[in-house]
Amino acid sequence: MQIESILIVDDNETEHFSNEAVINDYDENIKIYKVYDGKEAIERLKSLDQQPSMILLDINMPCRGGLDFLKAYNDLQKTHVPVVLLSSSEQEKDKKEAFEFSFVKKYIIKPLVVSDLEGLSKL
Q1: DSSP H or E stretch at residue 120
Q2: β-sheet bridge partners, residue 104
Q3: Mind listing the pLDDT tens digit of every residue in the chain (123 residues)?
Q4: Which of 14, 62, 20 is nearest to 38 (CA)?
Q5: Which letter does DSSP use for residue 108 in this model?
Q6: Is residue 82 reached through a cis peptide bond, with omega within 30 degrees of 0 on the bond before it?
Q7: C-alpha dihedral over 94, 54, 36, 41, to 10 degrees?
Q8: Which residues pair with residue 31 across a beta bridge?
Q9: What are the Cα distances from residue 118, in Å, to 16, 25, 28, 109?
Q10: How big is the chain by its Cα radius of gyration, in Å?
């Protein structure tokens, strides 16, 4: 899969900065959208003319966390772009709940590194 754009959903500005740097190291031509919680992510997805190639999603966020986002995203559209959970949580419960959605393709423990993106391009 050609990664043309990525929506990063994370409440931490430092994580946004770090993820953006890694993505740019991988391919500086990838368009990056940044939002800070699941609610804002749903609003951004509704407003985009073209859906991103992929969504990088944190689990633990205020307002609407990652798992709540997955439920809302599932109801929002009939077709979904791949979602990759990017989290500091290694709890099996979180992983199990996330993988109940067929569009969740991978669960990566932070921090994101270039080799993660190389693997994601093969999804």
Answers
A1: helix 114-120
A2: 83
A3: 889 999 999 999 999 999 999 999 999 999 999 999 999 999 999 999 999 999 999 998 887 889 999 999 999 878 899 999 998 878 899 899 999 999 999 999 999 999 999 988 877
A4: 62
A5: E
A6: no
A7: -100
A8: 5
A9: 19, 11, 14, 16
A10: 13
- Annotate 87-104 with DSSP letters as a single string: ES---HHHHHHHTTSTTE
What is the signed CA dihedral for 110, 13, 17, 31, rounded to 10 degrees?
A: 100
Token pair listed for 100 = 């109940």
Q: CB count, 10 Å around CB of 119? A: 13
CA distance to 24, 36, 56, 72, per residue, from 29 (Å): 7, 22, 17, 29
Global pTM value: 0.94
User: What whole-number distance in Å separates Cα of residue 56 and Cα of residue 123?
Assistant: 14
